[in-house]
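Human: If only I could read backbone structure tokens as easily as an amino acid sequence. Underneath my words sits a plain record pairing an amino acid chain with its backbone structure tokens. Take your time, and here it is.
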Amino acid sequence: MDTLTHALFGMATYGAMDKEGLEKPVKRSVLFASLAASQAPDADVFTGLTETGQIMGLLWHRGLTHSFFMAPVWALVIFAAAFVIWRQKHWLIFFAAFINVVIHNTLDGLNAWGTGWFEPLSSTRVALGFLPIVDVVIWSLFAGAFIVKWKYKSIPAPRVWKVVLLLAALHISIQALQGTFIINQVEDDFDQVELSAGFVPGSFNVIGKKDEIVTIKNHNAFGRESLTDTLYSQEEVDLDPLLNKNKRAEVLIEWAPFVVVTKDDTQLGVYDPRFYFDGEKLLFESIPVE
């Protein structure tokens, strides 16, 4: 998910906690833990500052730092940082950090970009495709919470944030149920099939591959489906020249569930069809044909 969404969840979890009776340094520590942990797994973006990190970006980002096994590690690091700053050891500080790392990792695995939930034990990228990278429903819920807090000051803040978190969980559950239903309907028609949620709630792209044909269909909340694109993957093409000259292509092939191979008079390349929009290939690696 986007940085703002993660920060909003961090703020909401802090707001939903019962902090009555806690001293100010403890409250500040918990707020720090909530916000820091909501962003901590994305520390891997700094690997992009190196040349190797730029090449390996798809595999390194949302990799080990986003593993559920790292959640207690991140929580301990943030707990320690809070202790250094405020000299507080309240259990709520660790809990706030831990739960926000878990929320961050869970949300990232629910979209099509994929997350290494179980690294280093498994290199599998979990990319369920139930949510878009930016979810307007979630943003709207948080916007509504700020309006309610501003207009109805008599309502306790923890109650507002708890309701928002419950509604967000309900929205995510509905998206997940609909996405699962769609996949179960079509999975027998393809050798491989992936899901990618659209920005419109209840809208999904189903990307299915059978032999050399990749089909992209849109399914909406009303049960309607429409063919978006039909792509042809030139599976017989020798990819050795591409892999030898473009290391990012090798990374893309390893990272994506499947790719489309394309070759013409000017270039040889591969792209991830989940990120193919109106002829534009968002994740595309190629070399010129000599």
